[in-house]
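Renewal narrative, Specific Aim 1. Our central claim is that a sequence can be written position by position from structural information alone. The example that follows is taken directly from our test logs and has not been curated for this report. It begins with the structure tokens describing the chain, in the order in which they were read.
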């Protein structure tokens, strides 16, 4: 059902993506944006021209071309939000750097089998994979991957050790999944959709993957934004750990009091992940259940096809 008064879509009224890219394809214009960013305050025409260092006629022309990114306020010229976003993308290294990281062991155990794990980074994707088991992902991902985060900015690598990079990747994943699960795309703020993907003929064969779906897990949660294409497909229990009943369990059991449950479940409580179970309770209507081990039994959360909790079984 459409919400009352919902927008039908946005009338752009500004520039097309092609125009936006071509407007920015010029050194003087990027230099104007950078100067305004660094200065933080509004700048007069002459101060800005002096800082950018080109002749007046040229400068005037380029400044006019940037009206979508720069505004003239009462105090002088300043960046619009669009201009700030361009500079933030540059600072995140997304546009300027293309680092790659061959798989490096990081001295942490695989949460599923206890073997070593390694990190690799390519095409702005951070992947953590197990050196011996099939991980969780399957599909198009290399064997052993159990976490893959697209759009991990190169700036996230700078000045951090590899275990710290893994923590950052987990935090980004958690923040993104928590937002997507509420129906909001964290990248563009458009509506995000949630769907459960269930393999109906799931059977793990000798290489650790299911022949029918090519993955390890039978159930995945798929979060998708149709506007910008942001998507993630965690195993069911990962976003399930943010249900208040699960947060309460982890708080009681280990004193988790920060937004880092996933990280701590994975690496400070080896073996716990193996005790988490997932099952398809019914297919029509679709109901899936996750169970987390508790000291006095198990916490069961049953979800419907939209990933809403429809039943909670408390331990003990
Ligand atoms: Zn493993
Ligand atoms: Zn399958
Ligand atoms: Zn989006």
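The sequence written for that structure reads:
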């Amino acid at each position: 059902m459409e919400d009352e008064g919902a927008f039908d879509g946005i009338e752009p009224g500004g520039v097309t993506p092609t125009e936006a890219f071509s407007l920015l394809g010029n050194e003087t214009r990027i230099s104007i944006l950078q100067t305004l960013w660094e200065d933080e305050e509004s700048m007069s025409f002459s101060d800005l021209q002096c800082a950018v260092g080109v002749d007046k006629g040229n400068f005037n022309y380029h400044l006019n071309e940037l009206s979508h990114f720069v505004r003239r306020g009462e105090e002088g010229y300043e960046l619009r939000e669009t201009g700030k976003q361009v500079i933030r993308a540059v600072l995140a290294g997304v546009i300027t750097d293309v680092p790659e990281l061959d798989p490096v062991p990081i001295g942490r155990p695989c949460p599923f089998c206890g073997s070593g794990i390694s990190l690799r980074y390519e095409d702005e994707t951070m992947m953590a994979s197990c050196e011996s088991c099939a991980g969780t992902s399957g599909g198009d991902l290399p064997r052993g991957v159990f976490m893959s985060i697209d759009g991990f900015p190169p700036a996230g690598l700078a000045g951090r050790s590899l275990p710290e990079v893994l923590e950052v990747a987990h935090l980004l994943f958690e923040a993104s999944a928590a937002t997507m699960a509420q129906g909001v795309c964290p990248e563009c703020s458009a509506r995000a959709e949630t769907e459960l993907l269930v393999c109906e003929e799931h059977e793990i064969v000798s290489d650790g993957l299911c022949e029918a779906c090519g993955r390890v897990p039978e159930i995945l949660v798929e979060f998708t934004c149709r506007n910008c294409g942001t998507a993630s497909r965690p195993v069911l229990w990962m976003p399930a750990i943010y249900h208040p009943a699960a947060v309460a369990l982890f708080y009681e059991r280990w004193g988790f009091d920060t937004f880092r449950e996933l990280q701590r479940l994975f690496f400070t409580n080896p073996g716990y992940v193996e005790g988490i179970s997932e099952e398809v309770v019914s297919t029509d209507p679709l109901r899936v259940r996750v169970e987390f081990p508790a000291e006095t039994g198990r916490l069961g959360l049953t979800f419907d096809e939209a990933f809403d909790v429809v039943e909670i079984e408390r331990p003990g």
